[in-house]
Please model this.
Amino acid sequence: MDVAVDARPAWTFLSNHGHVLLALARDPEARLRDVADMIGITERAAQSIVADLESAGYLTRTRVGRRNRYSLNRDIPFRHPAERDHVIGELIDIFAPER
Model:
């Protein structure tokens, strides 16, 4: 069975939570509207994900003028028991290395 070169499966390895986290790692001053567009989710879903990440301690939100700035806590371990011995900073280093 031939599969088209650009055919992609319907699933991804990273959840939307992971995508939002990485988007904010790349641009800590990004508007959630832009993050949502980049990932392909609604702005409301992005807001909910940021609230989840913030309540779990993965990020903090600071108001700067009329915008938010996000700081990531890179030392918190992954939530799933299979990856619990790794911290999210390792993921960020792979997909959003410091410039």
The CA atoms of residues 9 and 99 lie 31 Å apart.
